[in-house]
Amino acid sequence: MTVRHRLIRRPPAAVWAVLADGSRYGEWVVGPDSSRPADGDWPQIGASLEYTIRLGPWAGSGKTVVRDMDPPNRIELEAESGRLGTARISIEVRPWGENSLIIVDEHPLRGLGGQLHNPAFDFLLQLRNRRMLSRLADVVEQTSRPPAEHR
């Protein structure tokens, strides 16, 4: 299990606006080359996005399903990556003054990822999630206005 956090210098509503916009998924999630709506109305429970992952000449597909949510505080996703298995990703958005503290908790659930889960795997997830939180912060901070006192 990996847990990472990041302060984003925008209020929770601004963070949630990005998390709730399925068309922006590929802008902040590390891995997908492209994404598209699959089922339901993102981010409603049961809604999903399909995506393509490219690593050099290799391309694979995956799907992310919303398993639970409490707007604008939390969204829980299950990422399905074919033979690699599935992972649970919980993204919590906490008010932190005028800003937001984002906490990502990710761990493999089923399949090869769950079977091979070990400290080295967690280390790689830590790197991935650090990059993902950095990208999320960039997207949120570039697309929303700062609180009035900071302008």
Architecture overview:
The chain is of the alpha+beta class and 151 residues long. 28% of the residues lie in helices and 44% in strands. It contains four helices and seven strands, in the order E-H-H-E-E-E-E-E-E-H-H. The protein has helices at residues 12-19, 25-28, 111-115, 119-143; strands at 2-8, 32-39, 48-55, 58-70, 74-80, 86-96, 99-110. A seven-stranded antiparallel β-sheet has the order 1-7-6-5-4-3-2. Strand 3 and strand 4 (58-70) form a beta hairpin. Helix 1 (12-19) crosses helix 4. The mean pLDDT is 89.
Quick gist of this model?
This protein has four helices and seven strands; from the N terminus they run βααββββββαα.
Could you spell the SSE succession in H and E letters?
Answer: EHHEEEEEEHH
Number of strands: 7
Strand order of the largest sheet: 1-7-6-5-4-3-2
Determine Rg (CA atoms, Å). 15 Å
Beta-strand percentage range: 35-45%
How widely separated are the two ends?
38 Å
Q: Which structural class matches the secondary elements?
A: alpha+beta
Major sheet attributes: 7 strands, antiparallel
Number of helices: 4
Q: What general outline do the C-alpha atoms trace?
A: globular
Helix content: 25-40%
Give the uncertain stretches in residue-range form: none
Looking at this protein, list some descriptive labels.
single chain, 151 residues, alpha+beta, 7-stranded antiparallel sheet, 4 helices, 7 strands
